[in-house]
Amino acid sequence: MLTPIIAAVASLIAGIFVGKLAFAKNTQRIEEEATSKAADIVKNAELQAENIKKDRILEAKEKFLKLRSEFEDDSNKKKQILVQNEQKLKERERTIQISMEQTKKLESDLNSQKQSLTSKEENLRKKTEEADKKRIQAEEMLASQVTQLEKIASLTAEEARKQLIDALRAEAETKASSIIKNTIEEAKLTATKEAKKVVIETIQRTAAENAIENCVSVFNIESDDVKGKIIGREGRNIRALEAATGVEFIVDDTPEAIIISGFDPVRREIARLSLHRLVQDGRIHPARIEEVVAKTKKNIDEEIIEIGERTVIDLGIHGLHPELIKMVGRMRFRSSYGQNLLQHSREVAKLCATMAAELGLNAKLAKRAGLLHDIGKVWHEEAELPHAILGMQLAEKYKENVEVCNAIGAHHDEIEMTSMISPIIQVCDAISGSRPGARREMMESYMRRLKELEELAVSFSGVQKCYAIQAGRELRVLVDAENVTDEKASMLSYDISQKIEKEMQYPGQIKVTVIREMRAVNYAK
């Protein structure tokens, strides 16, 4: 019974001992591994410390070298500055030394010159004294001779001098009077001859065109089929064109042509260009017609500026104000007694330049005044002034030369001429206007009557636009539909016709047509 227990105890003790031995070995192994790891950690730490130390040393060396290099550069710069300053000081010392040597040399030269001047002054003083003695002797001899002559002639020297002067003066006056008389007579003979020569040479050197009375423009079309499109259904397109442009469109049996009739060349040109664009586009209806006419009017304004710029460039005139350039371009569409105003002004400018050059005056200034002398005729606002005075005021407004302003204002004798250019402008204006074929008096009076006719109708309340067509035999008045009723339109037509009868003179009769158009416009959004 005891034997198995003892055996079990012995085996237990043996197991415990074996376990302790195994634990001891495991513990020793763990300790050895820990020791090895600790040693590795320490070794790595020492290596890292060594590397960090080396890096710090390298950085310190680099910084030291950099600071040393900067210090050396700074030192070298300072040394260079010192060397330069030393060189400058040496140069200044050398310059001062040279200046001192030159000063000493100048002092010696001055001393020598003073000595020579002193000797010269002494010699001069001696010569002056001798001259004074001789002069006194000569005066004494002259006085004695004059005394002797006075005794012989029974006249004093003053009396003799006076008689001689009076005789010379009388002789000089006689000769001068004769010379002046001959000069005046010669000037009268040659002045007329020279003036005629200048005018003839000026006219001969200028080529001019004849004036043509033209109140119609012909618009050519490719085929007569286009005429139907232009007329429109029941003539609505042709009516819209006439209402928008203010001219008359004559569509007759003339093959492949439509006649545009109107006294205002600007309106005719707008009508012609608008019709050309409409025919090219192919869309011809009242709304499109109004759109195209509006665009064409804007383009005509741009063309006016272009014509003005081209004109001043052709004539070599510079520095002209933009508004004056625009007025020059507007002359293209204005005529004076049938003579195109721009052509007339260009002609006068060239004549003035030629005549001024012949007379030795400022040709450029004369050309400028000649071009601008009729700008008062194209001013867009109504003014109760002669066109010459209005033109002068416009030139003064836009800072033109005083001589140019006077020439413009005086070319019809409204003001006094104050420069030599003014009579040249007047003469050249007369030459351009009075030459054969230059003007037609009937054209000017006709255009004036039509403008007065339109202005009369526009003066009534409610009138928007007014156009004289058919050579002044019909007056078309467009009124505001909101302010003028149908009944009032009829009364307005009667009032205008009565006022025309009372205030105007005209051949035949004038048809007054008042047009009232009602439009309803809305927008789909």
Automatic annotation (TrEMBL):
Bias-annotated ranges (Basic and acidic residues): 119-132
Pfam family, one: RNase_Y_N
Keywords: Cell membrane, Endonuclease, Hydrolase, Membrane, Nuclease, RNA-binding, Transmembrane, Transmembrane helix
Gene Ontology terms: biological process: mRNA catabolic process
SMART domains per record: HDc, KH
Claim: Nuclease is one of the keywords in the record: yes
Origin superkingdom: Bacteria
Gene Ontology molecular-function annotations: hydrolase activity; RNA binding; RNA endonuclease activity
Top EC class of this enzyme: hydrolase
GO cellular component terms attached to this protein's record: plasma membrane
HD domain ranges (all copies): 341-434
UniProt-listed Enzyme Commission number(s): 3.1.-.-
Cited PROSITE patterns: HD, KH_TYPE_1
UniProt key word DNA-binding: no
Polar residues: bias regions: 109-118
Assigned protein family: Belongs to the RNase Y family.
Protein name as catalogued: Ribonuclease Y
Classification lineage: Bacteria, Pseudomonadati, Bacteroidota, Cytophagia, Cytophagales
Gene responsible for this protein: rny
